[in-house]
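Re: that backbone. Tokens:
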């Protein structure tokens, strides 16, 4: 994998160097300094684009969703997420809103390494609002951070009002890449 990444960066820089040579050779009325400045900007832009493509490819290979996106699985069933995901740093915690507000899916984790899960809301599952809150009995959650991607796993609880004496527990997995 590292060899492929190195080759990709090498190809991008080589391509940029060829572009520089072409710009220098075809500069026409421009001074050498102007041509080199323009060529240098082209190389920087090409290298930045190559790095961005490689980072996106690496994240995808790791199974990370694209920036601003998330995957949510509850009891082995992937949920349909409508809309973007947004992450906000507030008071030492990362607030993560997933999809549109009506879905009610979100999480709060600390900035620590590894992050500590403070709470998770999974919205309405079969008529039951389920979630996890640190310190309350019945659920558990852990988080990992890889760059801008958070992977949160655990179990969440809820109460079915049709049978309030029998709490419900659902396993969940969230993967979200903050924009």
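Recovered sequence:
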């Amino acid at each position: 994998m590292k060899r492929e990444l190195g080759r990709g960066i090498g190809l991008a820089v080589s391509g940029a160097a060829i572009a520089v040579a072409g710009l220098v050779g075809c500069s026409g009325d421009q001074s050498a300094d102007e041509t080199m400045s323009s060529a240098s900007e082209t190389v920087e832009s090409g290298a930045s684009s190559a790095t961005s493509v490689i980072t996106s490819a690496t994240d995808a290979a790791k199974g990370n969703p694209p920036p601003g996106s998330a995957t949510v699985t509850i009891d082995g069933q992937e949920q349909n997420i409508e809309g973007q995901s947004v992450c906000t740093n507030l008071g030492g915690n990362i607030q993560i809103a997933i999809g549109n507000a009506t879905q009610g899916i979100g999480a709060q984790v600390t900035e620590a390494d590894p992050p500590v899960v403070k709470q998770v809301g999974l919205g309405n599952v079969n008529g039951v609002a389920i979630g996890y809150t640190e310190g309350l009995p019945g659920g558990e959650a852990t988080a990992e951070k890889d760059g801008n991607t958070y992977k949160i796993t655990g179990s969440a609880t809820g109460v079915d009002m049709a049978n309030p004496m029998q709490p419900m527990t659902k396993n969940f997995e969230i993967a979200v890449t903050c924009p």
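Residues 49 and 135 are 44 Å apart (CA to CA). Residues 2-61 form one domain.
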